[in-house]
């Protein structure tokens, strides 16, 4: 297999319009606003680090899209990777060796050219820091061929490699600047690297994107300013301010009052009535599935197969969909409908609360106590109120005979408990870094998310084998392989796959071009 992609492909990709919502004269009316030099974006923050090698939160990924660049990128809402810092890529027939040629005009904000040495450093640092996103470099080695050429070698076939290379953690940084700040790509980087705080310093110069960092506050706001030395077309704004606004009604008031130009977390039930001469409304299919994680840790009530089956069967998925509102649909599995391997509508988990109630009664497990963890301030997922959703789940599960205690905590606390494997039942979603189904394999037994619920490969060897078969499948075999794994996950996994929400974006009409990307985020470098 050989594939070459020219950088000119970027120029051939049109700006696609995302599905618009119904128009209404109510809310945000008035004349179309004029464009200013500052773009203000309201979002419910999930921010932790803008060191690319440790980025694992949505707000940080959005921020990074203005500061840093990857070898490949998505243009607008099209799930087809296009060259960015790369100029071309070729692969061997086995899809295990990839030769990437870099474009020759890209520079970092500090003026240094982007070279193969920077690529090798960035990807090896990601691997050896061993932070959460390091799994993306598992089984991949990278080597410099010459100043403009790198070679990636994978242990298994990786026909999806260009998708992988769009992920924010694989952004390329200036190795000279990061090394000077204490960074290293050596195998002991997890202990030896001290450059983490360098990335929060204003104008650190380590990125090649159209904007530079002015300030980074994970609780209040993040400010970017124009990179005066940007190698590409000049950015559209002098400043971008991303503000932490957790309340959807406040986001609505801000954008209708002209205090912001983009709102990312207004739910569909509100957004659908906001379109006007002053405001544009867009919606896009979700790249993520909302799910319940059921711990298999010894001693957890959810480690009991009868409890798992009762929960998965006892949930009224249609009622949850109605509770969430506009655009949401029932999940058919862990793979969202936009990806290969997704199951058709109607082939997802079956709801039968009466059967679940009878199962618990027959097993003598009526009244079993279960604790549901969730983030009570988390509204990033399409503006969904987790408090309302958790209460709905509590009502449904208590109706089948379980006794459910809610444990609402702030996102930082709830997420850390989940990451550390301390939750019994947890409500989360997985925001993928790429638009390829391989991104969902973290849910497989023994995978990153599988481990969080104490579900090793030996606990479900058949499902683990199907996951590996999907991972290495190539060509036309990929869809069938991922479908088989998805079906097995529905049967065996200690997860209840609930919903696929729709993401809504409300923007001032002064913003000439903005679009969700395939991951329902926005790319700051593509906003005009």
UniProtKB/TrEMBL annotation:
| Residue intervals passing through the bilayer | none
GO terms of biological process kind: peptide transport
Entry annotated with the keyword Aminoacyl-tRNA synthetase: no
Every Solute-binding protein family domain range: 81-439
The leader peptide range reads: 1-27
The entry assigns this protein to a family as follows: Belongs to the bacterial solute-binding protein 5 family.
Task: Please identify the protein, giving its name as recorded.
Answer: Solute-binding protein family 5 domain-containing protein
């Amino acid at each position: 297999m050989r594939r070459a992609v020219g950088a000119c492909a970027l120029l051939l990709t049109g700006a696609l319009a995302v599905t618009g919502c119904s128009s209404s004269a109510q809310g945000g009316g008035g004349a179309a606003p004029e464009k200013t030099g500052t773009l203000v974006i309201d979002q419910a923050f999930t921010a932790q680090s803008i060191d690319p090698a440790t980025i694992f939160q949505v707000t940080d990924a959005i921020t990074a899209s203005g500061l840093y660049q990857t070898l490949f990128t998505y243009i607008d809402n099209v799930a087809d990777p296009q060259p960015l810092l790369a100029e071309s890529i070729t692969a061997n027939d086995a899809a295990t060796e990839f030769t990437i040629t870099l474009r020759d005009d890209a520079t970092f904000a500090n003026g240094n050219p982007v070279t193969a040495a920077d690529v090798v450093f960035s990807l090896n640092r990601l691997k050896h820091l061993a932070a959460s996103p390091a799994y993306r470099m598992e089984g991949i080695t990278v080597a410099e061929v010459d100043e403009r050429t790198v070679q990636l070698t994978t242990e298994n076939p990786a026909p999806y490699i260009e998708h992988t290379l769009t992920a924010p953690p694989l952004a390329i940084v200036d190795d000279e600047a990061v090394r000077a700040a204490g960074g290293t790509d050596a195998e002991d980087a997890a202990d030896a690297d001290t450059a983490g705080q360098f990335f929060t310093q204003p104008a650190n110069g380590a990125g090649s994107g159209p904007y530079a960092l002015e300030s980074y506050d994970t609780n209040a706001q993040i400010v970017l300013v124009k990179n005066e030395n940007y190698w590409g077309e000049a950015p559209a704004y002098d400043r971008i301010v991303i503000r932490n606004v957790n309340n959807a009604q406040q986001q609505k008031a801000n954008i209708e009052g002209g205090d912001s130009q983009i709102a990312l977390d207004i739910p569909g039930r509100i957004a659908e009535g906001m379109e006007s001469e002053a405001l544009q409304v867009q919606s896009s299919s979700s790249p993520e599935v909302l799910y319940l994680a059921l711990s298999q840790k010894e001693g957890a009530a959810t480690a009991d197969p009868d409890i798992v089956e009762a929960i998965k069967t006892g949930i009224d998925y249609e009622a949850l969909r109605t509770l969430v509102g506009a655009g949401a649909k029932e999940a058919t599995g862990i793979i969202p409908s936009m990806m290969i391997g997704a199951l058709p509508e109607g082939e997802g988990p079956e709801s039968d609360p009466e059967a679940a109630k009878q199962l618990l009664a027959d097993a003598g497990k009526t009244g079993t106590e279960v604790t549901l963890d969730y983030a009570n301030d988390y509204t990033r997922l399409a503006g969904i109120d987790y408090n309302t959703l958790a209460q709905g789940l509590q009502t449904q599960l208590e109706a089948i005979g379980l006794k459910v205690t809610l444990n609402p905590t702030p996102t930082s606390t709830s997420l850390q408990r989940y990451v550390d494997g301390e939750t019994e039942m947890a409500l989360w979603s997985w925001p993928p870094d790429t638009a390829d189904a391989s991104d969902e394999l973290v849910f497989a037994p023994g995978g990153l998310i599988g481990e969080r619920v104490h579900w090793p490969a030996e606990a479900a060897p058949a499902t683990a084998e199907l996951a590996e078969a999907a991972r290495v499948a190539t060509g036309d075999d990929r869809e069938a392989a991922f479908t088989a794994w998805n079906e097995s996950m529905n049967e065996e996994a200690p997860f209840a796959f609930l919903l696929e929400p729709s993401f809504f974006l409300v923007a001032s009409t002064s913003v000439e071009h903005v679009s969700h990307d395939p991951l329902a985020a926005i790319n700051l470098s593509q906003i005009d």
